[in-house]
Amino acid sequence: MTVSLKELANLVNGEVIGNDEVIISGVGGVENVTEGEITFVQNDKYLKKAESSSAAAIIVNDRIESNKALLKVDNPRLAFAKIAHEFTPQLYKTNEIHPTAVIANDVEFGSDVSIGSQVTIESGVSIGDNVRIAPGAYIGAQAQIGNETIIHPNAVIMHETEIGNRVIIQAGSVIGSDGYGFETTPNGHYKVPQFGNVIIEDDVELGANVTVDRGATGSTIIGKGTKTDNLVHIAHNVEIGEGCLLIAQVGIAGSAKIGEGVTLAGKAGVVGHLEIGANTTVAAQSVITKDVPPDSFYSGYPAQDHKSEMRIKAARRRLPKMVKELRALKQEISELKGKLEEE
Predict the structure, then answer these.
(1) How far apart, in whole angstroms, are the C-alpha atoms of residue 264 and residue 168?
(2) Residue 236 a catalytic site member
(3) What H or E segment, with its residue span, contains residue 115?
């Protein structure tokens, strides 16, 4: 595929500075861009490297000038992403059902569906238009999959899961497995059946090896536009609002409620049955052990208001010196007591 710089400018509402007929054949990062490709820089720090590269053009903001062909936009990284999509092949797109797929007789298919090799689709499943299901994936009974959804290799979608439109589920993820529910008795841990399901709303992306447990009763819900990194665990009956970001190795215990626009940084944890208010950020490796009001920034273990946590950490760094001073003070007091007793 090749396209002119002028056409790309129309795609991202940008302005070309220089030859707008330059032909672009692909995209590349500033470190590895090759001849004919377009790259981007966010600031002057990488401009020299981009200028000395083989790039045919550079995506920049209004403040950057160069002798190379430029595509000026408000947000170079976003424009680069949009352009990259134009050059990215549509994985698993065949518009066919592979002959090795095992599919129940009553499965409903939309138009232009692509089903890879060794895929299993159980009874009662509904699959929307332009869905792509990669090799090795499993779709359980009565599951619903919305239009333009992509399910990567070896993902497992358990029975009665509901998936919206334009959802992406990366390789190895398991959606709708049983939650961790047991009642401890003198004879051992008795399993509590998990009757619910998982609902994944439109435009959600789940990273590789993410696990989302089905509700014990009711549903585990992931709100529209939420994106998770790899290796995130979401327990039964968790409700996640729209537009959240969950970074790698986040763990959310059962029945927690996460408001809209919340960011949980890497390895953050949330204790079950708590609520995190909308637009809150939780720093990496923090553990939420109580409800959090909206628009907060929490950190630490147990997590608290970030400014309070910083003051505690600052005091903690002074502890060795404070201990030394305390010992010296105790020594002085001991010596003074001795002198007083002598008098």
Answers:
(1) 20
(2) yes
(3) strand 114-115
**pLDDT tens digits, 10-40:** 999 999 999 999 999 999 999 999 999 999 9
DSSP secondary structure letters along 28-61 = --TTT--TTEEEE-SSGGGHHHHHTS--SEEEE-
Q: Is 209 within 8 Å of 173 (Cβ atoms)?
A: yes
* Ordered DSSP codes for 203-267: T-EE-TT-EEEPPSSSEEEE-TT-EE-TT-EE-TT-EE-TT-EE-TT-EE-TT-EE-TT-EE-TT
Annotated catalytic residue, options 189, 236, 273, 306: 236
pLDDT tens by residue, 131-164: 999 999 999 999 999 999 999 999 999 999 999 9
Write out the H or E segment, with its range, that includes residue 17. Answer: strand 15-17
Cβ-contact 200, 163 below 8 angstroms: yes
With a pLDDT cut of 90, the percent of the chain lying above it is 94
pTM, whole model, 2 decimals?
A: 0.90
Of the candidates 150, 152, 142, the residue with the CA atom closest to the CA atom of residue 198: 142
